[in-house]
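Structure in, sequence out. Go:
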């Protein structure tokens, strides 16, 4: 493996939305061209929800966000990046207020080319993305959840809705789906597959409920690493411990545990904890008992200080902000892991 990496570079795959892809990109910027992001296409919120309703296609929002993460900041790539992330203002288009222009571009490309996967490829070329973005499925389908109280909710924004009963089971409304082109070879060629971080159900498991994906992951020779979230996510993992995150993931992996789980052990500063608790996010740290339970699942926990340095306050995002992993710390953990096999 060591010689191949020296000659061709490290092949990395992320599974999840922008949180997962951007962490891998920022952890290994020198291997940007060798990174493949497998991205969910079941979002229904905000700008994406409008586009899906009007054009009847898979969700373009997470795809757009990851494409721009792969784009450069200068020249044509930088210009297209700004175009894709440009959001329409209320005074311009009242009905389409806050719509990301990149979502509309992906929708129009899909209509012209007749295929969502081909639209993503064309958008990749337009924006000059250095890595590869693969929609987990190119079929128009939605998330559906059975809740603990027996209620069924349909649509990503209702699956993540706060204040509802806990999620008992997640699945797709239409399971007869087509995988994104290139997904299988990407998993086969990978050296490391990083699952997460991100919203456990609507970003990570949203990829794993696509039929065929858990089996392809199990068959891949790559080392699979679950990057566990640093906090709970309101509406999805309220009250979850580190072990709950790991055991839930393993269930949706078809009971094939990842090789490793990256777990943060450092407690943030009191003012950081307070800031996120105001949004009902709880910091999760592992106990020694949990670590033993995690080991018993068949995976190996890698416990380290993983939280971002120099916290400057909560970011103004279109969705709820959370504490983030430090790319340099994640890089160090993954390189240490790789050295065992090189």
């Amino acid at each position: 493996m060591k010689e191949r990496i020296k000659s061709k570079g490290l092949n990395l795959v992320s599974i999840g939305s922008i949180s997962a892809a951007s962490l891998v990109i920022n952890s290994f910027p020198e291997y940007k061209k060798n990174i493949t992001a497998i991205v969910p296409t079941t979002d229904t919120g905000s700008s994406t929800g409008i586009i899906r309703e009007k054009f009847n296609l898979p969700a373009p929002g997470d795809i757009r966000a990851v494409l721009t993460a792969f784009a450069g900041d200068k020249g044509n790539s930088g210009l297209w990046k700004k175009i894709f992330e440009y959001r329409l203002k209320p005074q311009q288009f009242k009905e389409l207020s806050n719509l990301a222009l990149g979502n509309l571009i992906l929708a129009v490309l899909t209509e012209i080319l007749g295929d969502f996967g081909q639209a993503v490829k064309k958008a990749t070329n337009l924006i000059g993305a250095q890595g590869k973005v693969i929609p987990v499925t190119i079929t128009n389908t939605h998330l559906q959840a059975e809740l603990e109280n027996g209620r069924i909710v349909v649509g990503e924004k209702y699956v993540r809705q706060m204040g509802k009963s806990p999620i008992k089971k997640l699945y797709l409304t239409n399971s007869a789906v087509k995988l994104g082109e290139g997904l299988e070879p990407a998993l086969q060629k990978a050296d490391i597959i990083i699952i997460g971080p991100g919203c456990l159900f609507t970003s990570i498991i949203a990829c794993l409920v696509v039929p065929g994906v858990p089996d392809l992951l199990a068959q891949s020779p790559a080392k699979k690493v679950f990057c566990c979230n640093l906090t709970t996510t309101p509406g999805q993992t309220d009250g979850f411990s580190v072990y709950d995150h790991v055991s839930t993931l393993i269930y949706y992996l078809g009971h094939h545990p990842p090789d490793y789980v990256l777990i943060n052990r450092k407690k943030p500063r009191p003012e950081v904890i307070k800031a996120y608790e105001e949004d009902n996010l709880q910091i999760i740290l592992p106990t020694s008992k949990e670590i033993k339970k995690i080991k018993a699942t068949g995976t190996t926990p890698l416990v380290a200080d993983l939280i971002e340095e120099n916290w400057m306050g909560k970011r103004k995002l279109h969705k709820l902000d959370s504490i983030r992993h430090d790319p340099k710390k994640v890089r160090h953990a993954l390189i240490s892991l790789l050295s065992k096999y090189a």
